[in-house]
From TrEMBL:
Keywords: DNA-binding. InterPro entries: DNA-bd_HTH_TetR-type_CS (IPR023772), Homeodomain-like_sf (IPR009057), HTH-type_TetR-like_transc_reg (IPR050109), HTH_TetR (IPR001647), Tet_transcr_reg_TetR-rel_C_sf (IPR036271). It comes from Bradyrhizobium zhanjiangense. Residues 3-63 form the HTH tetR-type domain. Residues 26-45 bind DNA. This is TetR family transcriptional regulator.
Amino acid sequence: MTASMRDDLLEAGLIVFDRVGFEAATVAAIRTRARASNGSFFHAFGSKKELAGALFLEVLRHYHAAVLAALDPVPDAEQGIDRLIRAHLDWVVTSRREARYLFEISRSEWGEDVRDGQRAQNARLVEGIERWRAPLVARGELLPMTPVMFVSQLIGPAQIFCRAFLSGRERADPRIEADTLISCAIRALRPLDRIDKQ
């Protein structure tokens, strides 16, 4: 079993899940799309659910990498807020199939099998954001709050637009709202006396 066959199966799974959803997807359809034998599939994954969980972790890793790349080189408070929101919006639009899978298709019942991997990846994301954020909080440039509250204030409003876009309820590219989302996040995350007056 080569790594490329596993990758081909994951890519095929993503395409099939995106097209017909998890419930309607079959191992046969995924194998056909990947040009893989039955033996190759079951050598890589014990079931469709196992493939779905592995795919979830892979897509989550790609999303986190895109977000954390926005913090290099290390930005100031407002630049960081700006870059993180734009990174989220850009990833959703340019990786729409993966974003739909991560935010719309994935199921909580897969969670038991992937929960440890998800926790580890989420912890790495939080650590990466905290390396940038903690010194800014210490200097009074960002308001003190838990990491979960920070991310919810930062990404939560953008995610509402993104979910509407991913589901097809909204056709407009969510990036058109980037400036407003950034302005709102700055007001929610920066002390009033530290907000740059434009």
